[in-house]
Amino acid sequence: MMKTYLLTPGPTPIPESVNAVLSQPIIHHRTPGFRKIFQEVEAGLKSIFQTEKDVLILTCSGTGAMTAAVANLFNPGDQIITINAGKFGERWTQIAQAYGLRPVEIKIENGKTLALPVLKQAIQAHPGAKAILFQASETSTGTQLPTQEICTAARQASMLSVCDAITALGVFDLPMDRWDIDVLITGSQKAFMIPPGLAMLALSDRAWEAVEKATLPRYYFDFRKERKALLKSETAWTPAISLVVALQESLRLMREEGLQNVFKRHDRLARATRAAVQALGLELFSEAPSTAVTAVRVPGTIADGKLIPKTMRDTFGAVIAGGQDELEGKIFRLSHFGYCGDFDITTGISALELTLGKLGHPVRFGTGVGAALQILAEENR
Predict the structure, then answer these.
(1) What would the pLDDT profile of 257-274 be if each residue is shown by its tens digit?
(2) What are phi and psi of 278, to 5 degrees?
(3) Is the pTM of this model over 0.85?
(4) What residue ranges define each of the domains in the chain, with the CATH number in brackets?
């Protein structure tokens, strides 16, 4: 028997109390009992989004919410600016193209973050662009982007800011109202610690004005219908009922810990992970590492980098993420957010040390774990 440890940037582990809720009999979604749950979930989401605006709950993946944002905000032929810092930034461009928009893509080298002068040049060159679409945390490269500065630049240029915070919201501070984020998107299987299947997003008043003027086709993903349903504490269509009930419990756990404490925990775990991999002589891939996930370059001593996540999973039971597309076999990624604590980090680093040794990389066992424990011990004094 092998125990499995889930250390991926989505899905993330599910707390025991959430699993218990998921095992309960299903209820009907057009009843007073469900509406009460929905009201509590809506209030909890507003506190995580740090907004007074409505938070829409869609039954779909995060990509569904990204698609919905494009369909609800724009008109055919609109020009937008997309920031491509990796696979998910590229997805903004692809969705825009699928809907007949004219995306101007800022392509950033993998592992690099956005240089603000580059964004300002794009804004100056395309003053008619309607919005800037970007990631707060580019999961594929483990890179954090300067969200507040991007939103400020968008507001100054009279453009909407549309932020994919699927692997960011609930991980680090993203105060929607205070930073004037126009559209903020997240997903259920990340910091919210429940299975995939829900996407949540909130819109500013400016974004709602754009929704009313947009002419792209929409039916299931119609924000106007969802907003109308919210008045009755319902969704426009049949929701993933069990996931909404599970979200009620995960939001309770986050409220109990305290949002700022959640951020501090994630920051501590991220720093411990980075210290561990660097103590092992490995190189961080990103110049601006994300608080959610650490991307690490495969060392030159290992010819086939795909063997690192494979060996960690199959031999030691630690499930991590490898690189995607052109980064496959070149990086691996260690998650440290959601239902994650100190010993998840030390377990993951232990499995990494054993894997590196098994694959022929020189390792002094305990070096990475010791570096992680040093960070964790300092924080717990």
Answers:
(1) 999 999 999 999 999 999
(2) -70, -35
(3) yes
(4) 16-256 (3.40.640.10), 258-380 (3.90.1150.10)
